[in-house]
Amino acid sequence: MKVVGSTCALKSKVGGEIGLSDQSLAISKCKIPLLDEQMNVFLQDMNSCYSKLKELVPTLPTNKKASKVEILQHVIDYIWDLQVELDEPEKSRQQHSVPRTPLTTLNAELASISVE
Fold first, then answer.
1. Rounded to two decimals, what is the model's pTM?
2. Is 110 helix (H, G, I), strand (E, B) or coil?
3. Do 30 and 8 touch, CB atoms closer than 8 A?
């Protein structure tokens, strides 16, 4: 039987079997064109989803590039705010309840603490 496509040897050159981390490294060095193509398509699709989220969420700053984590934090905050509005429309208009701190603010504070 003939092997079609890329192959990798998972045996060590020196003496037989290799450890799990060596095996993982050997597997990661294997290039399988179909999987590379599928991964590229997947990453392009994910990047387009992040771009769409940036368009839809009004709280994202437009003057700076946001990381994927920041985008997700703003999305979570925005969904939370919408949910509060749906659950208690009168309260959110009156603003008597204590507002919660957005994730982006909390993470900025944590980042400044860890830098110090």
1. 0.52
2. helix
3. yes
